[in-house]
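A common beginner's mistake is to predict each chain separately and then try to dock the pieces by hand. The better habit, illustrated here, is to supply every component at once so that their relative placement is modeled jointly.
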Amino acid sequence: MLDLINVDYSTQIPNNVDLASDRQLLRALEKWHPGYIDWWKAMGPDGFQEQLVYLRTAVSVDPKGWAKFGYVKMPEYRWGILLAPQEEGRKVNFGQHMGEPAWQEIPGEYRAMLRRLVVIQGDTEPASVEQQRHLGKTAPSLYDMRNLFQVNVEEGRHLWAMVYLLHKYFGRDGREEADELLVRRSGDKDKPRMLGAFNEETPDWLSFFMFTFFTDRDGKMQLESLAQSGFDPLSRTCRFMLTEEAHHMFVGETGVGRTIQRTCEAMKAAGIEDPNDIARIRALGVIDLPTVQKKLNVHYPLTLDLFGAEISTNSANFYNAGLKGRFQETKIDDDHRLTNSTYPVLKMVDGKIAKVDEPALTALNMRLRDDYTEDCAKGVERWNKIIEKEGINFRLDLPHVAFNRRIGEFRNINATPAGILLSDTDWAKVRDDYLPSSSDGDFIASLMKPAYEPGQYASWIAPPRIGIDSKSGDFEYVKIAA
Amino acid sequence: MAEAEHKLANGKTRIDFQTAPDAYRHWKLAVEGDAATLTMDVDENAGLFEGYQLKLNSYDLGVDIELADALLRLRFEHPSVKTVVMRSGKERVFCAGANIRMLAGASHAHKVNFCKFTNETRNYVEDASEVSGIKTLCVVNGTAAGGGYELALTADHIMLVDDGTAAVSLPEVPLLAVLPGTGGLTRVVDKRKVRRDHADVFCTIEEGIRGKRAQQWRLVDELAPQSKLTEKVAERVQALASSSSRNGPQKGVTLTRVARTFSGDDIVYSSLKVSIDRAARIANIMVIGPEAAPPASVAAMLEQGAQFWPLRIARELDDAILHLRNNEFEIGTFVFRSEGDAALVRAYDEFLLAQKDNWFAHEILHLWKRVLKRLDVTSRTIVAMIEPGSCFAGTFAEIAFAADRSYMLIGQMEGDNRPPARIVLCGTNFGPYPMSNGLTRLQSRYLGDPGQLDELKGMQGEGIEADEAEELGLVTFAADDIDWNDEVRVFLEERASFSPDCLTGLEANLRFVGPETMETKIFARLTAWQNWIFQRPNAVGEEGALRRYGTGRKPNFDMRRV
Ligand SMILES: [Fe+2]
Ligand SMILES: [Fe+2]
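With all components supplied together, the output reads:
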């Protein structure tokens, strides 16, 4: 267990970066760590800092070490610095430096660009912890509560990963940026987090599941493209983070899946066939499928916004410099320079949505976003399988990319989820058909009652098929009474 | 044509410098009591030229024309306004500076004239504060980059939102390989007195500097959290208002559109006529004196409003200079002549000087100061031809003193019975129209012989004929009717044969003698350094930074130091 007052930084922090003998890094970390713990206590899970939680800790990167389970109080969690093992002879795999050996130190000319990439990624990690801090109080089960906290501590570790890079490679500026990461606050008017979606509220558990399905998947796409980086320490850091990110998306996908499952089961048991018979379905204490679709309609566009403008000079610069690649860059069969190719981009042209071929380099955000959409669609299909299996006639769909956007080409227009353009007045009339109304929000809020007994589940969600670490159904994932 | 040029948007054939608030696409001017707000909310689809979008509140000449118009209206239409809050209408972005794609696609001549105009406009913000007590607060709510920061630099007070993101920056060096800002770095080190090594660091950090350090380094004056912004702005506006000396009436003078007619190569205004001689590459500019005596009282002057002769012709001349500067690149020489009654011109000058404590007269004198400065920095040969029938008195005489050369006819031309030309000096030649070097044109002219200036002061109101004018040094050459035509023709032909670049350099070097001021530095450094860098392949070559910007590809620099 970590002694918070007398931390021996060189031995108690799991790491594979030889922390014990890196004086510069140790000194930076010693200065930063107390602020981090303060931040965690102030902004981490509200009301559960003293409880024992059955958490997974990564103590090394080999298969035996990266998933050690045990009870721990969250402020004593052993956050560590772990990078995927170094690959011998790794090269820069794209852009103008393609074929050169991957950089172990930052090239001076790219320092500012890299710092920006690391800071933006780093800012999202503590943000989601802040957004989710009140959810413990309405957890639908101890199993879900534990999953929430697992996600939270791992986002904390992701912050550590980015802070490690800032401390190790960016000198004084890096240390200042690392401190700033603890100063900004999600949704704060004065010190907001850098990206829009990370300043939104996560008011209920369905939002949390949607968030971990969609927003953490954006995180996955960003990490995947940074894992391609020619700056090897960034690549290695992100590759290890991806193993944790997979669990976050699992929490999201199964969370929504179990919600749907429960709804369908309840409908069948009550003999309700029409998924739009909302009042009767809600009376069963479950969330009707059209409302699930509306929640999806909130979260998916928000995450599309995270990819930035369709045409971006920054992303072109990042790629050309060899700092941020495409999703699965090395598996793509092309010249990996993109100076002469194009990529189709949806844009507004003369008031209509049209496909336009743009220089591939500047359309990289778009390309990553398309890969993301494809990944999302697969998950949505798995949800549809559950509905289908239960014999309910309903489909969940990803809305059109022009729907409900705040950044990029479509930010100034109104479009339906099918991509039909509407005037402001027409949009106002149908808005509540597509996005949660305040009464939808009230209804979901009314279901958010905690279920703290081992093996107990709230009315609106089905139990998981298997427990974490293969534990039985009534396992006490969080010791509430402790 | 050597350079591919953008086409003007919407099928326009010339850049029009006239606009009015109801036609603005990019700015909003709101006035409430003695406080005004200028909100920059650039319509990205309303660029002056085709081929680019004005994203993130970036600007082109069209955006700046509106700003210049708004500033002029604050001075004439809103004489009671003491403070201006300059801010952005967009969330989390103040202004991204000059639009890069516009710059990349613009001809060199357009770029230079664009920079010149934006500098003149920025100087005008500062002039409004200095001479008319219009104090500007700039609220930087997001990124203020490059020319966007330069815009903020014009304000009396810069307030930066302290949200961990809003930053001021001059990213040109790392991003575009051109000199930062619109005025080079003069405002940073001279006006705000940022330490030179700090400025060096500042100019190499692409994302700029935010929060406390921005304040510590004197890049901004004050930080404000978003949640207290409204309060803080109100406080600061109040403080600025109490430091303002402005006390004009609520109601000002409406600036009606400057009337002009284009017909062939002529542009006809009410008191000014431009005739372009394309073969000779000359614009002949005739300024026409007033027809009637000045009004009897301030009230009568205000009654005349925008039609009051000195204001009317100042605006006409300003418009003509801007038109020629930006639409007629091949016209190398401006030949000024005047026509009218010198006594009446002088009477208007004396009237304005007598009433200079009146807000309207005050603003007109300062408008003339600005128009004459605009002429000073115009990179065309400026010539004055002082002939019988002319009225180079006072303000009009300043045009002759602004000229690179002046020619005065001795006596009369055969068959012309108008009396010989005379120059008449008055109070306006000795103070109210300083050049950017802080000196009057006569002070600059007699830098080596200040005694001469005293003698001239004693000659106010006298009609000075050619021989004497030449002797006093008021004109370059005097010639009689036998020599006149040949002298003038040979001079103009010779001038037309020289390299235009060389003439621009020559004239600019000679016009601004004596001390350096922030203004002279801005224009000189801009002309010398920025225009040099703008020409170099490292910026504008096929593989230069401006051309490569936005493609994601790195520029290829010629690494030799010059
Ligand atoms: Fe993460
Ligand atoms: Fe995550």
